[in-house]
Amino acid sequence: MDKIEFKQTFIERLAELYAMEVSDATPIELYQTLGSIVSTTYTKQWSKSWQDYRDTKQKQVYYFSIEFLPGKMLKSNLLNMGWLEIVEEALSELGIKLDDLIEIEPDMALGNGGLGRLASCFMDSIASQSLPGNGNGIRYRYGLFKQRFVDGHQVELPDEWLPKGNIWEVRKDSKAVDVHFGGSVHLEEHHGRLKPVYHGGYTVRAVPYDTGMVGYKNGTVNTMRLWDVAIPAEEEEHYRSIEDRRMVEELTSVLYPDDSNEAGRKLRLSQEYFFVSAGVQSILRYYKNLHLPLEQISRYIAIHINDTHPAMCIAEFMRLLVDQENLKWEKAWRLTLQVMSYTNHTIMAEALEKWSIEMMQDVCPRIYQIIEEIDRRFVEEMSTFHNQGLIQRTRIIQDGQIHMAHLAILGSHSTNGVAKIHSDLLKNVILNDFYVLYPSRFNNKTNGIAQRRWSQLANPAMTKVLNQTIGDSWHRTPTDLHLLMNFTEDDEVLEQLAAAKLENKKRLAAYIKEHKGIEVSPEAIFDVQIKRLHAYKRQLMNLMHILKLYFELKNDPKRDIHPRVFIFGAKAAPSYHYAKAIIKAINETANLINHDPDIQDKIKVVFLENYNVSLAEKIIPAAEVSEQISLATKEASGTSNMKLMLNGALTIATLDGANIEIREAVGEENIVTFGLTEKEVYRYYQEQNYRSLEWYHNDPVIQRILNAFIDGTIPNIVNEGKQIFDSLIQYHDEFFVLRDFADYCRAQEIINQLYQDSRRWNQISLINIANAGIFSADNTVERYAEDIWQIRPNPSSQLG
Ligand code: 26M
Fold this sequence. Notes:
Keywords: Allosteric enzyme, Carbohydrate metabolism, Glycosyltransferase, Pyridoxal phosphate, Transferase
Family: Belongs to the glycogen phosphorylase family.
Number of domains: 2
Number of strands: 25
Bound molecules: N-[(biphenyl-4-yloxy)acetyl]-beta-D-glucopyranosylamine
Cofactor: pyridoxal 5'-phosphate
CATH topology of the largest domain: Rossmann fold
Distance between the termini: 16 Å
CATH class of the largest domain: Alpha Beta
Low-confidence stretches: none
CATH architecture of the largest domain: 3-Layer(aba) Sandwich
InterPro entries: Glycg_phsphrylas, Glyco_trans_35, Pyridoxal_P_attach_site
Radius of gyration: 27 Å
Structural class: alpha/beta
Strand content: 15-25%
EC number: 2.4.1.1
């Protein structure tokens, strides 16, 4: 499609849809028109992709995830179709700014953070690598809450994204499946086999909404299938009361907003079974239509379990094979292991999913029976070779609870962590008992990011410099960013990259002015911490360092520091009071410092509201310092670290998660690390000799800062300040904030010094960009495809 053709099509489509001309149309109408052209264009490739997969019987992976976090899709679809530039120019010739239309689309925010965003980065890369892969999840009517600040407190508002119209989804009533909940089950003998007989309970209909996942200039369009719930027409009489109907509707109404705490709610378990059962049933229906022997299903189908939330896939697959397809248990179990694989995303104990037997029996009694049988056979088989201690620690059902991670590991052929250190911790510490039993199942797949979204799409200024300097092969081969290493001494390139950064900083400064009314200088260092608010991520340590600088400047207004803007973006789970206290403390500190004339704008603190994918796309290109300061061992991988380095930010980091691999990639001169190491953290655990109180008593700087939380220095935080103070002193500072604080301040001073030498800084920035290529999710999914899923690129995709 060329520009003239596109303009023609645009004018025609606008007339067809709205009987309007460009000059009369509102931005929403223009957006809908553009979206309609984009989606009708890729629809042909979409049906061709799945027909290819079906007709040539290619093995496909199904990525089961209770969260997907794609953000906005218009620009990324344009980019991947190779249309971005032409459309931008054509629209501008029609007097339309593409960026204005892009802003209209609501973010699809059906995820909390890292895990959901990773799933969406994978969807992009799977399609871009021409791999036959599908997403399977839930179409929540409300995504992650919208965050507002009222007097510095977080307030949550519902995310009503659907009424604004989702132009990308296609409802497929003909592909609906039924899911049964509740009631009771007993087994009856039937032709020499035990068959389940169901009593009571209720059946709901799962209706899929499919969204095209457009690959990067390769003609591949895959499917992300999200399930909505409906009452089956023939079951209407069972759902007479309003309560009954509401109970059904509730199933897909809202995303649980907690990414750290397993609350054990029945509705959550029902959501899990709902999308698992719908997904697995529809996969099996597809496979049976291929008319291949069931025994060979693992040659054609792989199912990936993203964290334990979809772990019931294992039991549901067994149910269908045994109850419906009449396979022998042993054969069904062999197939299940071959088909299933699992990724672990956290070692935080409170996030590990467990369900009580009663609740599982209540929600899906047949699934409970099957899990019980898996557990029984495991204990029986292991008893000949292994000691009871090991068996009791690894079995699925313990103390009346079902351990979902145990189910996921025992019922799959692969368990992976998301960064080297994390995978090693799984093997050697957290899941060591399982590693002893099944060493070959364990592997690492370091996370990656959708590189094109986080460079070309979010940062056109930098992209332009890169294209002029090293060509554009890095668009498809991200490791070609390494070509930039030939320019570490090229002043012109260094200046151009710095100019691009300055341009992005100016834009962010304007956004900050508009949304927060805070004036920040684009000459200041833009220091960014963007991620969910969590104690282990230690936003509090960042805040303490800000207070340290503040007190130093109050004492000595001439103190020589380069002006800095500290930028935060973070949502706290609504029930996570401690995290909310930290938000309030940051907001009040921001107020205090930003309005203090003594500070002369040397430090500014900006907490941007409602951090989401779209806001990330505004902040990251302008960032110069990337705060990755979790306590070592706690952040499984992190992915904002990768996005920020790709955009030329310097990382200030603990040796945690993927930070370690970032350091390997850039070299230790080009990252600033600090803090306890994994070994030191574990030594403290072993010897139980960390006394945070001593660090408070022995360090006057820490004392002054902590006192500020309780002595009124930071205003309006009487309760929050006390809660924070107590967490560090009375409750022993679980995440070693005081222990790491001095070293963190040392690292921050290195950053300050480095920035004085702008050439050196620009070089380091360039080196970070140059070495970000290995963190492309294109690479990551290639490893999954080869090592775990055993799927290959579609031979008939049109690469290039
Ligand atoms: C639990 C209970 C109820 C509702 C939601 C949850 C829940 C949701 C998300 C629990 C955990 C969830 O995700 C954990 C997560 O996001 N982990 C992050 O995964 C990223 C991708 O692998 C990593 O980069 C991060 O380090 C890791 O924290």
